[in-house]
């Protein structure tokens, strides 16, 4: 993997990806943040050596380098998931590349279902902790200790200072920002009523199919990290309706202006 990382990093440096400070991973229906970026360079994933390719139709599949709120950033417009058939090492490969290029902070967004029924669709949740239900770890491979400490501490995976700033920004801008625990499952099928009940019992406030692998690797690489979920559906097992993917994307789009405000205002303070 070290050889692959060097090849990919060299390619992007040659393309002008020069000393970014911040990495941003955009989740489902949250692509409009890109309009806030002064784009310097962009490269399609399928042109980048050793990079996975996004296969989900609403994920664009571009790595973008530019300036946002006065900071140099790399933005992943489209991310990778286990349910696309990738390994956890594939899914998290871009985080390793962004770190190698120079980022010190990683900001992540995702779409999630609300397990906590006090939370409503269209609202945002700041992730304060997570539960990994994906069945493995992105650090479970031979030679991982050459890239960072094998036994990565996860006692505080989300940066407390950044989370505090997110809360202050939300309050100042009258944005409803819940706080909670995100459970990451494999997917792509949605959960059964019994699974939603289980997720609530074990302490989840929201559930999704991404983010946790990237967070684990960011901690492995000693990056500061924070993540926000847009809640796109309400997972009430006693009143469960068939899922509507178009409705999920529409709810993500409704919350997008608030997400953009949070991210832009935060980046100004970093």
From TrEMBL:
Q: What is its EC number?
A: 2.4.2.1
Return the GO cellular component terms, semicolon-separated. Answer: cytoplasm
Residue limits of the Nucleoside phosphorylase domain? 21-268
What metabolic or biological pathway is this protein involved in?
Answer: Purine metabolism; purine nucleoside salvage
Q: Which residues form a coiled coil?
A: none
Keyword Transferase annotated: yes
Name its GO BP terms in alphabetical order.
Answer: nucleoside metabolic process
Top-level class of the enzyme under EC nomenclature:
transferase
| Record key words, sorted | Glycosyltransferase, Transferase
- InterPro entries attached here? Nucleoside_phosphorylase_d (IPR000845), Nucleoside_phosphorylase_sf (IPR035994), Purine_phosphorylase (IPR011268)
Q: Which GO MF terms are attached to this record?
A: purine-nucleoside phosphorylase activity
Keyword Glycosyltransferase included in the entry's annotation: yes
Q: SUPFAM superfamilies of this UniProt entry?
A: Purine and uridine phosphorylases (SSF53167)
| Any matching Pfam family | PNP_UDP_1
The protein's role, per its UniProt record: The purine nucleoside phosphorylases catalyze the phosphorolytic breakdown of the N-glycosidic bond in the beta-(deoxy)ribonucleoside molecules, with the formation of the corresponding free purine bases and pentose-1-phosphate.
- Can you tell me which family this protein belongs to? Belongs to the PNP/MTAP phosphorylase family.
The name of this protein is Purine nucleoside phosphorylase
What organism does the UniProt record list as the source?
A: Flavivirga eckloniae
């Amino acid at each position: 993997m070290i050889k692959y990382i060097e090849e990919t990093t060299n390619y992007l440096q040659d393309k002008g990806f020069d000393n970014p400070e911040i990495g941003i991973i955009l989740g489902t229906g949250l692509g409009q943040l890109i309009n806030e970026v002064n784009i310097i360079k962009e490269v399609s994933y399928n042109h980048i050596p050793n990079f996975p390719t996004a296969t989900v139709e609403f994920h664009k599949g571009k790595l973008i380098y530019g300036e946002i709120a006065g900071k140099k950033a790399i933005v992943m417009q489209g991310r990778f998931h286990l349910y696309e058939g990738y390994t956890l090492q594939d899914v998290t490969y871009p985080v390793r590349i962004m770190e190698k290029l120079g980022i010190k902070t990683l900001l992540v967004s995702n779409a999630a279902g609300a397990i906590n029924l006090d939370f409503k669709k269209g609202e945002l949740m700041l992730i304060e902790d997570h539960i990994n239900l994906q069945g493995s770890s992105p650090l479970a491979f031979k030679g991982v200790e050459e890239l960072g400490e094998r036994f990565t501490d996860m006692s505080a995976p989300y940066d407390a200072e950044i989370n505090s700033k997110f809360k202050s920004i939300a309050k100042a801008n009258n944005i409803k920002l819940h706080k909670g625990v995100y459970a990451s499952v494999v997917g792509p099928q949605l959960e059964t009523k019994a699974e939603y009940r289980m997720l609530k019992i074990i302490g989840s406030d929201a559930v999704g199919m991404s983010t946790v692998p990237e967070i684990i690797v960011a901690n492995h690489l000693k990056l500061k990290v924070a993540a926000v979920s847009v809640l796109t559906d309400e997972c009430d097992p006693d009143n469960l309706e068939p899922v509507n993917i178009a409705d999920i994307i529409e709810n993500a789009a409704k919350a997008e202006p608030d997400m953009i405000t949070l991210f832009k205002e935060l980046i100004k303070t970093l």
